[in-house]
Give the backbone structure.
Amino acid sequence: MPARLTGCSYRNFLETDLVELLENVPFNVRQQIFFQHDGAPAHASLQARRILDANYPNKWISRGGPIHWPARSPDLTLLDFFLWGTVKEYVYQEQINTREELEEKIIEAFATITEEMLLNAQQSLIRRARLCIQCDGGHFEHLL
């Protein structure tokens, strides 16, 4: 079983794993990246916030961050309206019997996501944000 996510383990991820993951991302792209964190306590820990402030000043979104986490709207959150549904649809096509099978299916699911799918999701996010603005922050699902 993986270790529980804590402020310390997340700090270690930010200091080592994230740095490695971003090594092959072109510098000009890295300069445009914003890191969006959910409400997990480890993501908002003092340890994590210090690392994010030092390495990504004004480029991260979270509770207690320089850019505050907005009110939750699944229609405006790419992970909610695209990613999790896409992954779940793939993973649960067949019954999963073991943890290893589940992990394998999740990895396979992410491998099926194409650049075109991500570009479509990005365009959808922009459209959703514009509709939200047009509706003055009110409901806009009926316009999608």
Notes: The two ends are 40 Å apart (CA to CA). Residues 115-134 form the longest helix (20 residues). Residues 90 and 109 are 6 Å apart (CA to CA).
